[in-house]
Amino acid sequence: MADTLDTKKADHVTEDHVEQAIKELSGDGLVAGFTPAEQKRIVRRIDLRLAVTLGCLYCISLLDRTNLGAASVAGMQTSLHMNAKNNAYTIVSVVFFISYTIFQAPAVVFIRMLGPRNFLAGIVLAWGAVMIGFGFVPSWEVMCVLRVILGALEAGFYPGCVYLLSTWYPRYDLQKRNATFYLIGSMASGWGGILAYGLMQMDGLSGLSGWRWIFIIEGILTCVLAIGAWFIIVDFPEDSPKSWHFLNEAEATFVVARIEKDRSDTFPDKFFVGKYLRNALDSKVWAFAWLYMLTTTNSYAIAYFLPIILRDGMGFSVAAAQCLTAPPYVVAAIVMFAEGWFADKWRVRGIVVVFNALMGILGLGLLGYVHNNGVRYFGVFLATTACNANCPALITYQGNNVRGQWKRALTSATLVGGGSIGGIIGTTVFRAKDAPNYRPGILACLIANALIVLIVAALSYKFRRANKRVDDGGKPIEGLQGFKYTL
């Protein structure tokens, strides 16, 4: 441990401490007196408190957001008089994303003001209460109102998590952590169908239908996890010494120094609305939002309609349709973590996104245009893996290529806001009247993957030109001398 740093507990890490730590960076990788083994232990503690904890909350977020499909095959549509004539299921699915989209940008500002622990745990607890309310709705119109409230509450969670993770890790350590966060959520939520099937067996208990118990029990679980998470989630790196004594000042300074050396944007400027919104003039901010919108068009369509396609389109029983949703998500989890590990090692981003999009095109082609159910189910594996693996890849692609705390916050919000628009698209292109094959929805998802390939190609061209300009001594990228885009 370095003698030059005071190791007493402190509320904040100062810029003077960081400058001192950066000066102590040496060729063998020692920072502020920590050996490589000690550095790894510090990072593992961060991983457990952030990537794993946020991943568990994201799991329950996905369950709460996508359990409509499970409730639907458990009898919700019949009970609430949802049918092809009133298109109620699609309406209930879509209204969530309206409020979810509107509240994205302001929500990410509040995470800085209130602190990650208070903000994230608070909104999770609130939406858990709303979920319990879903189990007692008398009509689909009331469910629509609750879905709007749920969307407003969840609006700050995912972009807040993306933003918080990006503040703790250097650029080339980030995709593994994003993948860990996302895979815990997506893999565990993939088992949501099995959980839902088990909860359906409570049908008749206390006079409530099985589909109502799906919402009630999962809502209670959400509230319990929110309370536990408040004791685990840590604040931003510069504030970490006050987060339940998670890191002492020397350890926090080491963490901040790594980030400063990588991109020099740990400490936020004073917030001004105009300055915050001016970051939206950067074209790549919207390119990333488009990419995420196109990816989530696929992921939400699969999450909401896969149980229905398996039941109506492939002829599986209700039990089989619920249970067969799980294996594709397990494979997706394995693939996304493997991609994260190799992408960080090789420092590549765009090529991973393109590979996944091409995989999605193949999988959707098999699912939508082949008649053999075995081959179609293999297509489900490819399509599910492609869109879910692309989510952490795109989060990292974006996070690696912007600088500044408020620009990072805005870009996280616009990225996830694009994702919510993708949710609207994904839930509307699969219409009840297109059952059982849902060909228009399949075609829309195919087009979305093709557009992903084109946009990444355009960004790669833009980034290569900018990097060459830096190499030739021209204008710096993102206002930092020596900063280069990650392709």
TrEMBL record:
Keyword Transmembrane helix: yes
SUPFAM superfamilies assigned: MFS general substrate transporter
Superkingdom, taxonomy of origin: Eukaryota
Keywords attached to this entry: Membrane, Transmembrane, Transmembrane helix, Transport
TM region positions: 48-68, 88-111, 118-137, 149-169, 181-199, 211-233, 285-310, 316-338, 350-371, 377-397, 409-429, 441-461
Domain Major facilitator superfamily (MFS) profile per the UniProt entry, residue ranges: 50-468
A Pfam family this chain is assigned to: MFS_1
Compartments reported by the entry: Membrane
Matching PROSITE patterns: MFS (PS50850)
Listed GO CC annotations: membrane
Topology relative to the membrane: Multi-pass membrane protein
GO MF annotation list: transmembrane transporter activity
Protein name, as recorded: Major facilitator superfamily (MFS) profile domain-containing protein
Organism: Cladophialophora chaetospira
